[in-house]
Here is the input.
Amino acid sequence: MAFAARLVPAKSPLPILNGILIEADANAVRVSVFDYEVSARAEIVAKVETSGSILVSGRLLNDIVSKLPNAPVEISTDGSKVLVSCGSSKFNLMTMDVANYPTLPEIPEITATVPAENFTTAINQVSVASGKDEALAWLTGVLIEIEKDSVSMLATDRYRLAMVELKGNVTAGAEGTVALVKARTLQEVAKNFGNQGEITISISKSGDREMIAFKANNRAVTSNLVKGTFPDIKPFFPKEVDHFSIISKQELIESTRRVGVVLDTPVAIKYEFNEDEVVLEAAAADAALGQASESIPAELTGAATVSHLKPQFLIEGLSGVHTEFVRIAFTKNPNDPNRLGPVLITGHGSKETSDKDSYRYLLQPNMQPR
Here is the structure.
């Protein structure tokens, strides 16, 4: 119930879409939700005495179930009402007309299979870079690309870019398939599929609906694809950068948070990367009201460099790194070789050895949301 209810629309113009469909047949009960864009369904073992289906308020039923004692739950119907009993607790709910509920989309053939834990980690790494402006729908999505033996995920809001690649089993002929999926839908998948072993990804671009489906064990989510053309951002990620600083990830996050306390507007913090340290400096819009500075150890390869980075965007990028140290690499501005381009954030296993993680995060200095 909790899994399916997460996908119930908060406020739908069609009240029936606020419902959750419960179907009982053989030895299983299936719960489903669908709002014409996203669907979720789960199946559990049950003792079914009479096959049938009912439609009730999803959020109300979920609130009830979440508070029931640890005992068997019995669901039955009485005319236009559904009765929910658990121990001494009893609830009566009004039903909706099942006949008016939309037909759930069929799950397409499998495109690729990936480890669930790796997939959910990848979603969390890249989705922070997706946009929040619904007027630019393609920016709110994450691009999933099916390659020969891997699945890559990319996102951008124009101020930062994120990319990660994970190994998987790709169905023959599926190489080159792409799908643009809303980041918030993927984030719900990440919350619910992380411990499910393997996830199958199914992408369909034929017929009336272009969609993607994720399935693991007894649960599945489908989503219509986001319309629009996602930009080709992979070429922006350089393969090699010989100018970089190695820093403790946690120290950099904590120092950024401390220095950023004095900021009263979402402005950048100044980061001065020197041979053996990084110096952080920040000031309020009216410098007289607050200033802060701090230094943390670092190892620099290349010339001393100054970059101004928005703290929230930097911390979100660092959060995707799962190693003790982080490498902050300094790229060149393609339009002006004398100016710095975006900083490239990647994991670094230790100060002596590089890391194999495919996560990449590009952050543009001095770029602030309008």
Notes: The two ends are 40 Å apart (CA to CA). The domain at 237-363 is CATH 3.10.150.10 (DNA Polymerase III; Chain A, domain 2). The CA atoms of residues 79 and 95 lie 9 Å apart. Helices lie at 2-5, 58-66, 116-127, 183-193, 249-259, 311-319.
